[in-house]
Amino acid sequence: MSAWRFSRYFLGSAPSITEARRFVTALLRGWPAVDDVELIVSELATNAIRHSASGRFGGRFLVSVQAHTDRLWVGVLDEGGPSSPRLFRPYPEGEGGRGLLLVANLAVDWGVWGDEHGRTVWAVLRTSSRTVSA
Ligand SMILES: Nc1ncnc2c1ncn2[C@@H]1O[C@H](COP(=O)(O)OP(=O)(O)OP(=O)(O)O)[C@@H](O)[C@H]1O
Ligand SMILES: [Mg+2]
């Protein structure tokens, strides 16, 4: 069971990447994993905008954070589309393919739910045991 959960929609355009980072920073003030969650949200929000229908005119994506006593769950729900998230090795020429690799390295677990109508890319980070307050 989660101790608390917050979600917020963002417009599917570039300025929302910074807004989504600020949203999680504000929610997770004082949590040890806040920097990692910020990076993960930034990568997942960027992907939602660049690779899913969330980036179309009027599109949006949903950022959710769930706090448990010893871990944080973060997910970005997009509006789907033909392409699916997949792990690449970084391209030899150094262009792209690093975002999900970074997420996979920072998280203890991660994955994708959904289909062409909408996908949630999620990650779990372990935090030291602490008292959870909203
Ligand atoms: N939310 C998503 N919806 C659909 N496809 C996705 C999504 N996220 C990632 N992908 C697919 O998975 C691939 C790998 O994503 P990843 O973030 O690792 O690399 P990238 O976005 O191509 O480059 P980088 O993140 O390094 O700028 C993408 O190129 C894209 O094809
Ligand atoms: Mg990416």
Automatic annotation (TrEMBL):
Keywords: Kinase, Serine/threonine-protein kinase, Transferase
UniProt KW Kinase keyword: yes
Pfam families: HATPase_c_2 (PF13581)
Domain Histidine kinase/HSP90-like ATPase stretches: 17-123
GO MF annotations in UniProt: protein serine/threonine kinase activity
Presence of the UniProt keyword Repeat in the record: no
InterPro entries given in the database record: Anti-sigma-factor_SerPK, HATPase_C_sf, HATPase_dom
PANTHER family: ANTI-SIGMA-F FACTOR RSBW, ANTI-SIGMA-F FACTOR RSBW-RELATED
Identification of the protein by name: Anti-sigma regulatory factor (Ser/Thr protein kinase)
Species in which this protein is naturally found: Nonomuraea muscovyensis
